[in-house]
Amino acid sequence: MTTLLFLPSGDRGYRWLRLADGAIRESDGVPPASDDPVIAIAPAESVALHWAELPVRSPAQAVAAARLLVAEASATPLTELHVAVGDEGEGERPIAVVALAQMAQWLTDLTAHGIDPLAILPAPLLLPRPEEGYVRATIAGAALVRSRTTGFADEAPLADLVIGDTPQHTLDRDGIDAALAAALAAPVLDLRQGAFARRRRRIGIDWALVRRLAVLGAAILLVTLAIDLVRIAKYSFGADALESRAEALGRTGLARGETVTDVDRQLAERLSAVRGPGLGFTTTVAAIYDAVRATPGTELTSLDFQSNGSVRIGVGAARESLPTDLKRTLEAAGFTVEAGTFQSANGRVTGEMTVSRR
């Protein structure tokens, strides 16, 4: 059972119709409280109806296009108007325009009576859309007129001036009942759109949705874990490949035929054997020659590389202070220098030094 609540306009107060099993009960005032759905009917005097070709891709596009059309046709600022778009299935689509303040007032008054209507329908759209001419009817005390692209209150003499000689048809009681049933079965336009859309209340827990979300969450976690495992495996395989390549390269540095057990250790042993202990023969001797060149008046008379990595050198100098200068230069280069006894003979100072890694 559905209740049609006709909103007040002018001197006309609330009126309601209740449809149940094909029978209509009509009364004044606000209907008594019940759990039956309520559909509010906006008076024709408060709603301006237009028809226009609008996009059908999405409701948002249709409303945006309708607002542009209304802005051109209305003297009231668009910010003060509520625009709703309907659909009659073919041809031009209906556009309803009502003041924002009026919509807010209707919903506030209905809420005060404990009513949250399923929809708010413009009264003229309760009438069927005629193939031609006009349809007239009086529903719940409201006289209405409707054509294919117009809908308004039937106020004499304005309505007669608009209709003129155009064919018209007045609905009888059976026609009104059929029109109301059709309008409720498939509403052409609901003013409860956008900011005034009815908020849905969820009662209880949607366990099917919870299960779907849980499955989706588990799938996301599994995919994330799989990505990490693939990345780890990729890095591991890459590291193994690099290690194998390094080992293969390392084998080329060992003596031919040598059994490989630990490439790193064996390469270190061979390098130590090639360059010698300590810093190695080449590095140590090069540093000694640099120090001799940096100390004019000194020369090497002998050089002996020891098994422990130190170098014993014989030094000849033109003056007694030069061996000390050479010793300091080697120490500044990072070596430990032990100087022996230097002797002076025939205008030359000679002696030995032991140079080792610090």
TrEMBL record:
Transmembrane segments: 209-227
Keyword Hydrolase among UniProt keywords: no
Bilayer topology annotation: Single-pass membrane protein
Family annotation (InterPro entries): ATPase_NBD, GspL_cyto_dom, GspL_pp_dom, T2SS_protein-GspL
GO biological process assignments: protein secretion by the type II secretion system
Domain GspL periplasmic: 207-357
GO cellular component: Gram-negative-bacterium-type cell wall; plasma membrane; type II protein secretion system complex
SUPFAM superfamilies noted in UniProt: Actin-like ATPase domain
Entry's localization field: Cell inner membrane
This protein's UniProt keywords: Cell inner membrane, Cell membrane, Membrane, Protein transport, Transmembrane, Transmembrane helix, Transport
Domain GspL cytoplasmic actin-ATPase-like: 37-169
Family of this protein: Belongs to the GSP L family.
Protein name per the record: General secretion pathway protein GspL
Organism: Sphingomonas taxi
